[in-house]
Amino acid sequence: MTKIIELKNVNKWFDKFQALKDVSLEVNQQEKIVICGPSGSGKSTLIRCINRLEEHQEGNIIVEGNEISENTKDIEKIRAEVGMVFQQFNLFPHLSILDNCTLAPIWVKKLPKKQAEEIAMKNLERVQISDQAKKFPGQLSGGQQQRAAIARALCMEPKIMLFDEPTSALDPEMIKEVLDVMVDLAKGGMTMIVVTHEMGFAKEVADNMIFMDEGKIVEKAKTKDFFDNPKSERTKLFLSQIL
Amino acid sequence: MELISKPNKQNLKTYLPIGTFFIFLGLLDVTLNAFAGIDISGFLPSKISYFFPIIIGFIGFYLIRVEFSGLRNLDILNKNINSNNFNAFLTLLTLYILIKSIPPLLNWFILDANFVGTSKDDCTGEGACWVFIKVWFNRFMYGLYPDPEQWRINVAFITLFALVGVTFFVSQKLKKYFILFLIFVYPIIAIKLISGGEFGLKYVETAAWGGLSLTFIISAFAIIFCFPIGVFLALGRRSNLPAIKYISIGFIELWRGVPLITVLFMSAVMFPMFLPDGTFIDKLIRVLIAITLFEAAYMAEVVRGGLQALPKGQYEAARSLGMGYWKMNVLIILPQALKLVIPGIANTLLALVKDTPLIFVVGLMELAGMIGLAKTNPKWLGMAMEGYVFAGLVFWIICYAMSRYSQRLEKRLSTER
User: Fold this and answer.
1) How many structural domains is chain B composed of?
2) Which chain A residues are Cβ-neighbours of B416 within 8 angstroms?
3) B chain contacts of residue A104, beta-carbon cutoff 8 Å
4) Which of A22, A174, B74, B291 matches a 20 to 30 Å C-alpha distance to B176?
C-alpha cells in the first residue's frame, strides 16, 4: 500500500482559537476513512487543509509527495487531483449541470470540449442524473444537486475524494440516493476521506474510523474495532448518543 | 336618520346610481372646464366651483364604497382606488390634475405650436416654436462639423446600428466575433472615418465635433472603457495583495470624492500645464479619459457589491476544481456577480450618458451644449424652453432604451426556475 496523504503534527489556528491540535494522519491509496465527531471538533477544517482551502500554520501536509504550504507553486495542480464535495453542493448556478461538469476539465485540464462532455455524461450516468444534464442547478432537488456535485468532482478524474458532510443539508429521503452513489464510488476503489454522521454508511465502506474532539484526533481504529470496542470514554459517549 | 344611512348591500341599489352619477358629474365638470372652458358649476362661489369636481366625486365615491357588494367590477374598483376616504381623495386628485394638465400641454406641444417657417418671426402662435428645432436640427445633431462632410458621421452611425442589429440575429458562434469586432475594431474605424485626415478624407478637428453625435461618441467610448476598468478596480479592492488593494481603494475614493465638473476642468485646463512643452493630447481624448475614470470608480463599487453578494462556497468550489485566480473570477465569479448587479450597472451607465452635457465647461458642445449655444443666438432669443424640452425628450429616449435593454438582459440571463 502506498501512502497518498500524510499529515504530520498539523496545527491550525483561527486567530486565537486552535482548530487543529497536533494532528497526524496517514492515508493509503484506495483507503476509505470516515471522520466523525461533535460539531466544532475540527473535522471539516482537517479535510479542508488537505486541499488548502484552509491554511495550516504548523506541521506538514504531504499529498502525493508534494508538500502543501504557502510555498507550494502549483497548488492548483494538486487541487485538480483532489476532488471535493461540499455540504451546500456549491454547484455553479449560472451553468447547466453539463457545463458545471465540463468547465474545469476544459479550462483546467485543457481537454477538448467533446472529450470533456463524454467524460461528463459518463459520470452523470454513474450518479444517475444524465437525463438532467441540460437543466440548471436551481431546477434540481437537493439529492440530485449533490449527486451532480459528486459527478462534477469526478470529471476531473481525481485520485482522492474529500466529502465534507455531503448529506447534512439534505432531506432525509434524499440521503440514501447520495450515499448509494458514494458506496458505489468506494467499491470502485477511490481513495476517500468522508466527514459524516451517517454511521450506517461508515460501517459499510470505511476501512478506518477517526473520532475527533476539540481539534484533536481522539481515536483512530479499524471500523469494526471502533464500533464494537471503542477505547476512549469520549468516543463511547459520542457513539452512545448518535447510534 | 334612515335617510342618510351608511352605504351597505341593502341600499346599494339606490346608492350606486346616485354615486355613479356624482362621479360622472365631477368628471364631466372638470373635462368641460379643461377642454371647452364651460363651467357647469359656475353658479357656485368661485372657490367652491373650482374644487366642485373633487367634492362631488368624493361624495360619489363614498356612496359606492360597499364591501363585498357582489358586483365584481365594483369590488375591484373599491379595492384598488376607493378603499377608504383618503385613497378616494388621492384618486380624484390624480384624475383632476391629469385632466387639467392635458389641454395646456397639448396646446403648447401641438395645437398652438408652429412647425412651418425658417425664422423666429414665423412663430406667431402661443405654443412652442418647433421651427427653432427644425432650423437648428443639423447643428443639434452634428455640432460644428462641416456640412459637406456630415455623411461621414451618418455612415459611421448607420453602420454601427446595422451591425448591432445584425448581431442580434446571427448564430451564437458568430455573435462572439461580432461583439468583439464591435467593441475593439469598429470604434477605431468609426473614429478614423469621423476625424478623417487619411484616405483622402478631409481632417475635421475634434473641436468641431458636437451635437447628438458627440453625445453618442463620448457615451459609447466611456461605456466601453469604464466597464472593464471598473471590474478590475472591484477585483483589486478585494485583492489579498496589499499594494493592489490600497491602490484600488485610493483610486476609487479619489475619483468618487471629486465632482465631475472639477475633473473635466482639470483635464482640459490644468493637465496640459504638467505636460512637457510641445506634447499635445487632444482635448476630447482628455475629456474622455476623465469621464471614463470617473465613472469607472462608480462602476467598481457597483461590481464590488455583486462580488460580495456571492456565497463563499462558489469561490471554494472553483478553487477545489483547480482553478486559479483568473479562471475562477472570469468563469465563475464575475458572470454571477455581474448578473446580480445589472440594475446597478444600468444605473451607472445612464448617469454617464446624462453627465455628458457637463463637457460644456471645457468648450465641447454636445446636444445640450449646442442648444445652449443656439438659444443665445440673437436671432433666436427666448427659445430655451423648446430647446431643453427637445433635449430632455432625446435623452429620455436614449436612457429609456438602455433601461429596457438592461431589463431584457436581466430576464434572459436568469436561470432561476
Assistant:
1) 2
2) 138
3) 321-323
4) B291
